[in-house]
Amino acid sequence: MIEFHLDARSGVAPYMQLIQQVRHAMRLGLLKEGDKLPTVKDVVARVAINPNTVLKAYRELEYEGLVQPRPGLGTFVTRTLGGEAEVAAHEPLRRDLEGWLAKARDAGLGDESIEALFANTFRRFSAARAGRRG
Amino acid sequence: MTSAVVTEGLTKRYGRRPALSDCTLDIPAGHVVGLVGPNGAGKSTLLQIVCGLLRPTAGRVTVLGGDPVSGSPRVGFVAQDTPVYAGFTVADHLRLGAHLNPAWDDALARERVDRLGLDPAQKAGKLSGGQRAQLALTVAIAKRPDLLLLDEPVAALDPLARREFLQGLMEYVAESGTSVVMSSHLVADLERVCDYLVVLVRSRVRVTGEVEELLATHHRITGARLDPATLGGGRQVVHARHTDVQSTLVVRSSAPIDDPAFTVDGIDLEDLVLAYMSEAAEGGRDRVLEKQR
Fold first, then answer.
1. With b meaning 16 or more CB within 10 Å and e meaning fewer, what string describes A91-117?
2. Does B192 contact A13 at a Cβ distance shorter than 8 Å?
3. With contacts defined as CB-CB under 8 Å, which chain A residues touch B188?
4. Cβ pair A2, A38 in contact under 8 A
5. Strand runs labelled E in B131-261
6. For a surface tag, which of A34, A43, A62, B19 has the fewest beta carbons within 10 Å of its beta carbon?
7. For B34, which residue in chain A has the nearest alpha carbon?
8. pLDDT 10s per residue in chain B (293 long)?
9. Would you call B192 and A6 a contact, using CB atoms and an 8 Å cutoff?
């Protein structure tokens, strides 16, 4: 069983923090297929957050196909993340990114400009994806 | 969805001074509602009207579908400074609660007292602030109310006691689905526990709605100095600050703002509340929110 925590200053929405912590625990192998997530009541009693926040996070994880609620029993992990396939994908992606970074440097961008451009593009990309799904 | 509290043009005056002016709200049931605003904004007055302790000067109020009734078993109320009877023991408080409330859940009350480590024989006057608040909350929720009203329940508590109080409250909400309206000026706490917000400033409702919806529709815009009037339709400027070259606006807009002339960022609940309150703060008399985490 994992325990959640909340960073009030991170600027990341509380439900998203819970989702990230589940995904993170799955990648690290702390949560495997068949493991149970804490009940909503247990989470709110520990983290002092609104129950709907936990429900929303669990719904989102279910939508992503990572967990499955079983009525009366709880919410269970349905996959094991961070398998070899994902790790194998890292290397070519890293090479692409390094190529992009080299191009940005050649164009005269400094560290802050590169970070801002990446963060901004990533946000737009994620927002567009989220919009398409919703 | 049914409503927990509906008000229409609700007004309360003390002599000539308005404590609540033309307050119109529709608070859906099943939420944890944060009632926020500077001291003297009318938060306590609104809560006391809802629980039937005060009569409005004008306007209408409906609580759980009926008129507010003082001492209603369906409404739990914890007044400011979490009042307990200093000369009564913890056990006396539970006995009194059982005596006064037909739906009293004695098992719940005892289980909570036990878990909190309160000595039933202890006089309430000897408890710490955090323990007194927990006892007052226990008495309020053992009534098994449909609506729980809390007036600044954690304002006087240290951070640990505050966290423990909110943990207990959220656990009960998760289990019971009770509607909660709690006033506070500690927005960081509200951001964790509330999913619905009412901002009162100078006796008036400034903004109200689901937290998620409010966060999704409020944006901080920074860019070269601009006239807020030129921003275009469907965009309400909540707050604007200008230097000689730059403007920083907090804008409410349901449509995304996609203009290369500005940097558009999200906004957290604390900044959102402060934007609505800052007009009052600039007026000088009201105290600003405490920024406390």
1. eeeeeeeeeeeeebeeeeeeeeeeeee
2. no
3. 8
4. yes
5. 147-151, 179-183, 196-201, 204-210, 218-224, 236-242, 246-252
6. A34
7. A50
8. 589 999 999 999 998 899 999 999 999 999 999 999 988 899 999 999 999 999 999 999 999 999 999 888 899 999 887 778 889 999 999 999 999 888 899 999 999 999 889 999 999 999 998 899 999 999 999 999 999 999 998 888 888 888 999 999 999 999 999 999 999 888 888 888 999 999 999 999 999 999 989 999 999 988 888 877 777 777 888 998 888 888 899 999 888 777 777 888 888 888 999 999 886 555 433 334 444 43
9. yes
Pairing of strands B32-36, B58-63: unpaired
8 A C-beta contact, residue B14 and residue B263 = no
In the block, tokens 């819970």 appear at: A18
Tell me which residue has tokens 């400009």: A113
Q: Kindly report the pTM of this predicted structure.
A: 0.81
Report d(CA A111, CA A100) in Å as an integer: 13
d(CA B42, CA B16): 15
The identity of residue A49, as a single letter, is I
CA distance A118 to chain B (A): 15
**What ipTM was predicted for this assembly?**
0.80
Which tokens in the block code for residue A61?
A: 């994880």
Place of tokens 């859906």: B28
